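Human: Not sure, check this?
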Amino acid sequence: MNLLTNTDLKTLINFQDDLCITIYLPTFRAGVETRQGRIRLKNLIREAEERLINRGMRSSQANHLLEPLKKLSIDDLFWQHQRDGLAIFLAPDIFNYYHLPINLDEFLQIGRRFHLKPLFPLLSGNGLFYILALSQNAVRLLQCTRSSVIELELENIPHSMSDALQFDDPERQLQYHTNTLEGTNRQAAAIYHGHGVGTDDSKENILRYFRLIDRGLREILREENSPLFVAGVGFLHPIYREANTYAYLAAEGIPGNPEELSAEDLRTTAWPLAEQYFRQAEQEALNRFGPLKGTGRTTYNIIEAAPAACNGRIEALFMAPGAGQWGNFDSQTNAVAVHEQKESDDEDLFDLTAIQTILNGGKVYVREHDEIPDGQDLAALFRY
C-alpha cells in the first residue's frame, strides 16, 4: 500500500510540467462500496481525456498519457486494498498514487503544478503521527491520524528481543534482516543468564535491542517530521530514549503492555497526546498573531501572502478548508494578479502560498473559519 511521505510531498511540490494531472477521489475499505472508487476513476479518466483533447492534444497522445490510469482502473487487487481516500498524480515523467487516511472529495485538475491543498490537513492538527509499540516479545510501528491507523511492515527491525540478540557478535546482529526471522512469539528469557529484569545485564541487552530497532526506524522515518510515541511498560521508556536518534520522539509516551492493546486501542490512547503535540506549536503562533497585527508581520491578503511565502517570510499560515483564489504570480517581479473566474494560465494562489510556505520551512494549518484569526479564509504570520 502506497503511503504518502514527506519526501514524496516535496517531490510533488517541486514538480512542474504543462500536463500535471491531479485526481482525488473517496474510496472505501470494505463492502460493495469499494466498487464506487473504480467507477469514479473511470469517469474521471474520460473527463481528463476530453480536457486534454480540448487543449489541442491528439486522441492517441491523450490515450498514451492516461494509459497508467486505465490500467489502475481495472486492477482488481489494487481496489481490494484501499483506505479513506486516493490521490493520483500523473504527468509525462511521473505517475504516483497514494492511499490516504482522510476523506477526499472527487476532483480533477490539469495544470502546470499538482494540486496539493487536500493533503495539507495531514501536515496540521489532524496530521500523521506514529506509535512504536515495544515489548521484549514484539515490535509494531503504527501510522496514525485522528481517525485512522495502519500497521506498517517492518524491514531491518527485529521482531523481538530474542531475535535481536540471538548472536553474540554485535557486528553480526547489525546484519540481521527481518525477512529471516523465525517468529515473533519466542521467549527472551534465555538471554538473561539467570539475571533479573532490573540488572545491568538485562538493561544492556534491552539497550542493544532498542538500538537495533532505532537503526531500522531511521530508514523508515528518515524524511519524516511527525511525532513518534513509544508504547511500553514504564521501565522501557527511558532505555529507549537512550537508544533513540529520531528527532521527533515525543516527550510523553503510552504506559502499559502494548501486547494487550489492538492497533485501534493504541491510536485512541495516543490521540490526546498527539493532539496536544500538534496544537502546542499552532497555539504559540496564534498567541503571537494578535499582538503583531498592524506591524507588518501579519496579513489576511493573498496578494501579500503569496510573494511572502515564495520569499521564505511566512512562519505560520492558517487556511480554511476549501478556500482558494484563482490568479497567477510572477516570481521575477513578485506581482500577483487575482481573477474572479479561472483563466487559462491561472493556479490556486492559496495552494501556491501553502506549498511555498512548506518548502521554506513554515507551518500550514488547515482550520475552520472560527479558528482562524478574525474568521478569515487565510491568515499569515511573517518571520520578519
Observations:
- The domain at 293-382 is CATH 3.30.1330 (60s Ribosomal Protein L30; Chain: A;).
- Residues 263-292 form the longest helix (30 residues).
